[in-house]
Amino acid sequence: FPSSALGVSGSVRACCSFSTLKSWLPILSWLPKYNLKWLRMDVLAGLTVGLTTVPQALAYAEVAGLPVQYGLYSAFMGGFIYTLLGTSKDVTLGPTAIMSLLCFSVVGGQPHRAVLLSLLCGLIQAVMALLRLGFLLDFISYPVIKGFTCSAAVTIGFGQVKNILGLQGIPQAFVLEVYYTFAKIPEARVGDVVLGVLCLALLVMLMLMKTNLGSDDAPTYSRFAQKLVWTVATMRNALVVVAASIVAFSWDAYGHHVFTITGKTSQGLPAFSPPPTSDTTDNGTVVTFGEIVEGFGGGLAVIPFMGLLESIAIAKAFASQNNYRIDANQELLAIGVTNIMGSFVSAYPVTGSFGRTAVNSQTGVYTPAGGIVTSAIVLLSLAYLMPAFYYIPKASLAAVIICAVAPMVDYRVVAKMWRIRKLDLLPFAVTFLMSFWQVQYGIIGGVAMSGVLLLYNMARPRVKVSDHGILVMELGSGLSFPATEYLSHIIHTQALQVSPPRSVVLDCHHVSVIDYTIISEIRDLLSQFKLRGVCLVFARLQVQPFAFCLFCLRIQLLYNMTKYNCETDQVLSQF
């Protein structure tokens, strides 16, 4: 056979090898080793996470402005897909507070568009994974992330105050929401206020009990008591919602409608069908696919990125904690396929949940198969428990949401940024403040501000000037075209525009990157030095392939130095 044919054949065999298949289907790496112990722990973790997922999914649908069943529609596909494609044993995919807020900001509570948004986000995420574009997430800096999460927590948390108070007719825009919430306090329903405050108090108490369980100051319990406290505290959301629903049902049975309840919901599993590519408004106007996508605007870029960022950050954190590694691009693929397939069961965009992932890890899950059990619980809830959700008080769901987002307000990070680098407060502040206007604009504004700071550092590299008879300028970083004018200005003002002109040694020990624009400017500077009878010398160059042109220029400069008999030997000997 021709050698080319043999090469193609070898490539095909390599592509179809079992190791390649395992990289695309990580389930193949742990399924052959699966045993009864792993099954027992996965079932326990799946049950625990499932009892946390159901009330949170119902609550997050409220944040997204969608009927509560859409939260459950979005909560089960991730468990099945991630078992096949995920590389973290701990991560659970499903609706989260941040993704729900982003979804609401883009689709405004319209179910059909939320489902279509899930499909488009999934396609973008899957394409990014296949093209290995995960590095783009590196351009979203930590101050931007913290500014967004803090703002989202405030927006989501305050948005639930109206449900705690039982108020109606509150606008969704944050500033108007704050104004009208305070203006309508006299209209608050006593039943909702009492129930909401009690639910908040109970959730906080159980959360503190779980937090202090392992501390030195905690009272000594028996092993059984510790497990009981941990179990009750972990399932606190489900217990509080069930208890509140029983209270609401009891009052309603006696004809006292003192609580604002969820009301009628669709029963049964969602139909498996392609997401709608058009929509119809209330007045009968047909909105085409192109018009819907145009209406999504910047949200179509922000939501996929934030979903990936949130999930990968969670996966990396728990992989480090539990001593294993993840494949970031494979995680992108898992999230993308989850959103694509989720759109066929009326889900809105999902990502990794930090709270539920923490519960999963603490329960001792061994493999991603725990997600199958969680998804089964969600499906059973959809099939048989939807009529019971009729009596869930909105105040109890609001309490669950407030307790879930409160830890996201990290005020300590401001003090840390102030101590380490004050300029980092700029993208933080821009993201935080603009997110109250439009969430996606806040993220875009923060990324833009981070980009400006990054470009400013490139345009203003650190230059340390010292006088050794000849000026020595030590460059603190690489030289790129934005720094051209700044470097030229320093050399002119320090050496060429003084009387008499002075020779300069550029210490390039820290310079590992240079581009053509800088080379062109150095050539011009060389001619200026030549006209004035002084020298420009490079020292301690890092001779690498990408700096070869600079090395050639150095030879030319050293030749000119010899030609003009510059007395630089003493200075150069220091390098």
TrEMBL record:
<feature type="domain" description="STAS">
    <location>
        <begin position="469"/>
        <end position="539"/>
    </location>
</feature>
<feature type="transmembrane region" description="Helical">
    <location>
        <begin position="331"/>
        <end position="350"/>
    </location>
</feature>
<feature type="transmembrane region" description="Helical">
    <location>
        <begin position="228"/>
        <end position="251"/>
    </location>
</feature>
<feature type="transmembrane region" description="Helical">
    <location>
        <begin position="397"/>
        <end position="415"/>
    </location>
</feature>
<dbReference type="InterPro" id="IPR002645">
    <property type="entry name" value="STAS_dom"/>
</dbReference>
<feature type="transmembrane region" description="Helical">
    <location>
        <begin position="115"/>
        <end position="135"/>
    </location>
</feature>
<feature type="transmembrane region" description="Helical">
    <location>
        <begin position="92"/>
        <end position="109"/>
    </location>
</feature>
<feature type="transmembrane region" description="Helical">
    <location>
        <begin position="43"/>
        <end position="61"/>
    </location>
</feature>
<keyword id="KW-1133">Transmembrane helix</keyword>
<feature type="transmembrane region" description="Helical">
    <location>
        <begin position="365"/>
        <end position="385"/>
    </location>
</feature>
<dbReference type="GO" id="GO:0008271">
    <property type="term" value="F:secondary active sulfate transmembrane transporter activity"/>
</dbReference>
<feature type="transmembrane region" description="Helical">
    <location>
        <begin position="190"/>
        <end position="208"/>
    </location>
</feature>
<feature type="transmembrane region" description="Helical">
    <location>
        <begin position="67"/>
        <end position="85"/>
    </location>
</feature>
<dbReference type="InterPro" id="IPR011547">
    <property type="entry name" value="SLC26A/SulP_dom"/>
</dbReference>
<dbReference type="Pfam" id="PF01740">
    <property type="entry name" value="STAS"/>
</dbReference>
<dbReference type="InterPro" id="IPR036513">
    <property type="entry name" value="STAS_dom_sf"/>
</dbReference>
<keyword id="KW-0472">Membrane</keyword>
<feature type="transmembrane region" description="Helical">
    <location>
        <begin position="435"/>
        <end position="456"/>
    </location>
</feature>
<dbReference type="Pfam" id="PF00916">
    <property type="entry name" value="Sulfate_transp"/>
</dbReference>
<keyword id="KW-0812">Transmembrane</keyword>
<dbReference type="InterPro" id="IPR018045">
    <property type="entry name" value="S04_transporter_CS"/>
</dbReference>
<protein>
    <recommendedName>
        <fullName>STAS domain-containing protein</fullName>
    </recommendedName>
</protein>
<feature type="transmembrane region" description="Helical">
    <location>
        <begin position="296"/>
        <end position="319"/>
    </location>
</feature>
<dbReference type="InterPro" id="IPR001902">
    <property type="entry name" value="SLC26A/SulP_fam"/>
</dbReference>
<dbReference type="GO" id="GO:0016020">
    <property type="term" value="C:membrane"/>
</dbReference>
